[in-house]
Amino acid sequence: FATMELRYALTFLCLVVVPACTSDTEVSSHFVLEPYDFLFDTAVEAYYKGDWLSVILNMEKALKNKATLRKVKAQCRQSCANQTAFGEPVAGLGVPIPGTGSVEDLGFFQKILKRADCVNSCETEKVGAPSLHLVSEEIELEFKKRSPYNYLQVAYFKINKLPKAVAAANTFFLTNPDHMEMRQNLDYYRMMAGVQEDDFKDLEARPHMAQFLLGKSYYSDDSFILAAEHFESAVDEYFIADKECRVLCEGAYNYDGYNYMEYSADLFQSMSDHYLQVLSCKQHCAVELALTAGRDKPFEDFLPSHFNYLQFSYYNTEKYEKAIECAKTYLLFHPEDEVMNQNLNYYSAVLGEDKAAAISARQVVKRYIQQSLLEKELLYFGYEAFGITFVDPDSWTPEDVMPKKLREKQKAERETAARITEEIGNLMKEIENLVEEKKKDSSEMAKIIVPQEDGALLYSDIKVTMTSKQLNGSQRVLLDGVITDEECRELHRLSNTAALKGDGYRGRPSPHSPSEMFQGVTVLKAVKLGQDGKVPLKSARLFFDLSEKVRKVLESYFRLDTPLYFTYSHLVCRSAIDEKQEDRKDMSHPVHVDNCVLVSEVNECVKEPPAYTYRDYSAILYLNEDFEGGEFIFTELDAKTVTAEVHPKCGRMVGFGAGKENPHGVKAVTRGQRCAVALWFTLDPAHEEKVRKTDVTRRDHWQHGGTVVSTVAAQQEGPEFNSTIRPGSFCVEFACSPRVCVGSLRVLRLPPTVQRHAVWGNRLIG
After folding, report:
1. Distance CA 194, CA 649 (A)
2. Labelling 606: which of 18, 61, 379, 509 has CA 20 to 30 A away?
3. pLDDT tens readout for residues 641-668
4. Where does the pLDDT of residue 441 fall: very low under 50, low under 70, confident under 90, or very high at 90 and above?
């Protein structure tokens, strides 16, 4: 292991510190660019150590090196294309024309080999061996999401470089507009002294798009001179970016899900596959260049629209020659455009027909269209001949570019797809009707099925005090000895230490009765407080373990064939408000049913929202008896006729089915505090309590203080909060009221393993 680390260190020194050092098997005497994934991981590790200067140094360098790598690849490929042009003669052959003979074929492939050697030598000389800069898809995605700027904005904020922090934050947010924390950070920055509106930059803005957006802004303000200047700059930058995008398509073959070990093709088939893939990539550049941060879709008809804006801008500044040139250029894309043809006729009449006729469309656009149409023809040929799908990204492509047979085929496919869609819609309606009928049948069957009970209790200390029969109902059980007196006291202490008024009831301290005050704590809250050292961690663990114990007991006693899943776990205390007990006639918790809306007037229970229709079983575990009132009752559906009454005491638990067979409530607590653990369960794993799915409940996290999950809505930290967003809605469920979805889960990101840093030193070079 020590030898391996030493080799990594020596390799690092050779590559970075002493570029000219050599070994017995000299790899390269040229400059080596540090891999940007190595720098990214170094920055992330520094971030979790709080080494902000190191974060900035390495992350900025990672961004710079990634841009340098892209630029070098583009320059090398463009330069080598010019140096090894296929039109140049070969000694003894003249200009080799492939297919005219085997010798001529050799001359053609000689050019290809020389170009490959040129590109490889150029890249190796400027950035090091290509294999050194191979990065994982995960890292590519991080840069695509602009994650480096998330780290940078915190680091700059920490060292009080506010303009740079703001620019980094804004750059990240433009690509991640749903990131609530960054939105809050930007709002926070706007209120800070010294922050200017100009600080909110897009550090990743591409020149052609930046100029285009500026042009649009001036155009909207009727500043046509400035608009024209920026649109012209945008056109120039567009073709520079297009050339770079196209040449970068000439990379390695993407097997697109195929196992490259099984890929088998002859010389010309493999060349065709790769070349068609390159052409498809080049066509997609039109989409790539029309995208900008903050927009889900590319600008429609992006390049032609430049000339639409330009012709009108020049008209408004009375530059009719330019207006005619841009109108004619636009018509290269859309020759039948009626409005533009009318504009052109008007400009020509103003300038003079003879002068107008002498003005031609821009040559650079003519060449662009000619090249693009030839590429499309080849791609459509590949579609017909080899079945390699091509979707044209441009709306201006003439219809006849697509082969007639393929047009007819696609038309037939569209008609077939429409017919199938209609048939599927009809089939879905039939299925819905069948499902509804099945539900009705199931409901009828459920009425005559007798649920099983009297299963094993799994724990010797637990005793059955009353069964369903003794409780005058079905799917009911009263157990004693579920927890010990000491466990009751510990949970009681936890409730008084950690519980918040109104927790579990949308913050309302008296949700069911104005004569009582409710306070509660969830498993998640208890765990977080335990890991923060605000309550004993063992108390939070006890809360979690006892809830699991109850689940197992219910599964066993009711002989369930499928497991139960928690939907909500709540340690709740209700306390009598002394001054509000006189002449009191209400209940602590009115009679209700856990999975349907009770309509007691007609003895019905409607199973639909806002009720938690997915709840199947419920349990209440009591912690004390030193209070007055607070008896748990079962009733008939009229909510008046009491069928059974349970007096709480430590270790006693009532478990029951959550359906309409078990309406229940709690009588008024008239003195003291009544505490219990309320648990609700489902047979459907899709509705499992979110905290049970997260890492906070894993045993190793109890031992080592693992990741804490918190909702976005509950956090108000500033920019320094080192977290990431895990996409997806997070639904918060309340004890006896409809659940609320509050956005996304935020989880602390763990730093990458140190082993990532050894990878660079061990890569093949050349």
Report:
1. 62
2. 509
3. 999 999 999 999 999 999 999 999 999 9
4. low
Residues 393, 396, 402: CA angle, nearest 5 degrees: 70
- The token duo for 604 is 């019905």
* Domain residue spans of the chain: 36-199, 224-237+245-394, 464-696
pTM: 0.53
* Peptide bond just before 610 cis, omega within 30 deg: yes
Contact (CB, 8 A) for 524 and 677: no
Determine the Cα–Cα distance for residues 286 and 281; give it in Å rounded to an integer.
10
The position carrying tokens 């006189």 is: 582
The percent of the chain in helix, strand and coil, each rounded to the nearest 5, is 50, 15, 35
Q: Looking at mean pLDDT, say which of 185-194, 220-229, 742-751 comes out highest.
A: 220-229
CA distance 314 to 91: 52
Largest Cα span, the chain: 116
Q: Where are the beta strands (DSSP E) in 349-496?
A: 463-466, 476-480
The predicted-structure confidence for 514-547, as pLDDT tens digits, reads as follows 889 888 888 888 888 887 778 888 888 899 899 9
CATH number of 464-696: 2.60.120.620
CA distance 739 to 609: 10
pLDDT tier at 511, thresholds 50, 70, 90? low
Q: How does the average pLDDT of the chain come out, rounded?
A: 81
The two structure tokens encoding residue 147: 């994650």
CA 722 to chain centre: 18
Of 115, 476, 674, 756, catalytic = 674
664/633 Cα distance (integer angstroms): 5
Kindly report the length of the chain.
766
Q: Retrieve residue 81's tokens.
A: 């294309």
